[in-house]
Amino acid sequence: MMSKEHAILGQREPRQRERLGQRAVQLLAICANFPICEIYGYDWHQGRCIYVQREGEVQEEGMVDLVPIGPRRILMAYGYFSLEVYADNESGPPITEDWDVLVDDEIEEYTRTICAGPGRKLEITYLVIPNAIEANVEVKLKLKDLGSRSRAVYGKIKASATDYRNKSVHLFSCERGTSLSFPSGSTSILPLSPSMVAVPCRWQLELHIEVDLTVITTCDSQEEQDKNLKFSLEFTHEIMSQEREVDDDQVEVNIKWYLIC
After folding, report:
1. 90 has pLDDT over 70
2. What pTM was estimated for this model as a whole?
């Protein structure tokens, strides 16, 4: 069934369609060369957590890519986009920086550097999309019934669009040591964080989803068997659900398009 948003897109003239979206900031990458506990992002009316250091995680030396966990809602671009960075407990008050994101009439990518003291810096790359729509992603994992054998999953799921310029947003990131357990024969929704991204609002909506998951099966002898579920999917306003199967284990990806409000 066609959603209300799709019906609106289909009824409007091309010039009107271009006005359906709202101004948004899409986070693309964060990297730093010093330990960070938390990062919060703020727009003109809300604040959202975008990064939390995982328990027991030790940051390597040099510039390291940090995997964001948010924001859980799209950040708007109607004034200033701000960061509040919390380092270790001995570093004093949070580091804050903001940038004007209201000036762009076209899609623009920025990489900003925050200096947090001698030799300490953080870089953030984000996209300002003057006319954006929200893509909400759901990933279902359908594992075949293997009786009492335990099943666990780890890996990555990323989202990208043409305007992200060869960059991706991590929707799911889980290492083998922290893999998620699922019962055999179950259908489970993977905990994506974030579960949505902002994409340009055009008649030809498009989103690319890259799935790279490994399913671990522990046999009665405690021997582990790994199976890789790796594939890429393309979604549009007409293609919003796809499924892939490897040896009866299935991954289903669903996309819902929403006007940002």
Report:
1. no
2. 0.87
